[in-house]
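[step 3/7] fold_predict: job queued, chain A
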Amino acid sequence: MKNSYRLDYTSLAEVLGQRALVEPQRLKLALQTSQSGPIPFPEVLVGDNLIGDWDLSRVVCEIYGLPFLPVDLYSPSPDALNGLDQEFLRKHRLVPLSRHKRVLTICMPALVSAEVLGMLSSTSDLHVMPVVGSVNSNNKWLAEHLAAPDPVSADAGGVPSDWNKIFDEGDAAVLLNLDQEPRDPPSEAAA
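[step 4/7] structure written:
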């Protein structure tokens, strides 16, 4: 099945608006939010309850003629991850399903742009075959199998290098001291 749409978020937004699945103003805002921040467009749509996760995947399958194969229905092969940039996969919510010689089957969180798939192909030197998954199932799989490294690291002396950690430890110390200090009952003035 040949389609006339390019794998990109603008085309997807057009179709969602034409089919009256999402209000045009909310689509525009979701698209702007995804373009200016780290959260991909499909995740903004699902996260803001503008469209259901499975409904979005169904529409993507229909308009792009791609198969639906979420990670809850097909367990990814551990070998599919070999040599792939895990940070890139986390950033774009991509789950590698399988690898056969030079062909990598990749599960998209509903949709990623053709540019993202092209970058994956060029950096891995593999031919990328995308399939449609769901936003939530991809995120769940990535959290379970490709958890991001802890950005809070300690130097050799055990001193945290992250400011948030410093403030958290300070708050905990203050609360601990409050619990340990005896408190005198307030004195009542003699009448």
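[step 5/7] annotate
DSSP finds eight helices and three strands in the chain.
The first strand starts at residue 95 and ends at 100.
exit 0
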